[in-house]
Design brief:
Largest sheet: 5 strands, antiparallel
Order of helices and strands: EEEHEEEEEHEHE
CATH architecture of the largest domain: Alpha-Beta Complex
Distance between the termini: 42 Å
Radius of gyration: 18 Å
Strand order of the largest sheet: 7-3-5-6-8
Number of helices: 3
Shape: globular
Length: about 180
C-alpha cells in the first residue's frame, strides 16, 4: 500500500510517498480502508519535530491523525463493527498513520459515521471538534446557562464550537458571516 511518510524531523516539509505493508490487525483492532484523511496544524508540528519532547516518533513515520473510511477487516474480539461499515477516527497519538491506504485501529478508537456525511467531512470533524470541546469544557470550564462569545463563528473551529456549546446548554453569541448565525 502507499503511505505518506517522513524519514526525519525537518523544518522543511519533506514528505515521501512510499510503499509499505498493509497493517496486520490484532484481535481488538479494525482494518480501515482510508477514503479521506484530514490535514491540520498538528501534522506540521509533528513533521517539524515541534512536539518530539511530548511524543517522539520512530522513523520513518507515516503522518496523519484523523481519517474516515470503510471497515475492511475486524479482529476476532471486535463485535461492534462489520466489514463495510463507514467509520471515522482520531488516531491515538502513539499510533498515527492516516495518510495511507489502510490503517489498523483499536475498535474503541473508532465510531460509525453519521448518516449522510461524506468521507472528507467526517475526516475533518474529529480534531476540530475535540479542540472546541476541550476549549469550552476544560479550559473555560463553561457551565449551562452561561454566555459564550465565539468570534469567527463561521470558521472551522467556530462551526464545531457553536453546536457543542449549544448542546452543553450555553447561550452562544457569534461574530462572523451569516453562516455563523445558524
Amino acid at each position: 500500500m502507499r503511505a505518506v511518510q517522513i524519514k526525519k524531523y525537518s523544518k522543511k516539509i519533506n514528505t515521501v510517498l512510499c510503499d509499505v505493508p498493509v497493517p496486520v490487525i490484532s484481535d481488538s483492532e479494525v482494518l480501515i480502508q482510508v477514503k479521506a484523511a484530514a490535514v491540520n496544524p498538528l501534522e506540521l508540528l509533528i513533521l517539524t519535530g515541534s512536539v518530539k519532547l511530548i511524543q517522539n516518533y520512530s522513523m520513518p513515520l507515516t503522518l496523519g491523525n484523523e481519517c474516515a473510511g470503510v471497515v475492511e477487516k475486524v479482529g476476532r474480539n471486535v463485535q461492534d463493527f462489520r466489514k463495510g461499515d463507514r467509520v471515522y477516527t482520531r488516531l491515538p497519538l502513539e499510533k498515527i498513520g492516516a495518510f495511507a491506504e489502510y490503517v489498523a485501529v483499536d475498535h474503541r478508537e473508532i465510531a460509525k459515521m453519521p448518516e449522510g456525511y461524506e468521507f472528507r467531512t467526517a475526516a475533518a470533524i474529529l480534531l476540530t471538534g475535540l479542540t472546541a470541546y476541550q476549549g469550552i469544557v476544560e479550559e473555560l470550564e463553561a457551565k449551562p446557562g452561561q454566555t459564550l462569545l465565539i468570534t469567527g463563528g463561521s470558521g472551522s473551529l467556530g462551526q464545531m464550537a457553536v453546536p457543542i456549546a449549544k448542546e452543553l446548554g450555553l447561550r452562544v453569541i457569534v461574530t462572523g458571516n451569516d453562516r455563523a448565525k445558524d
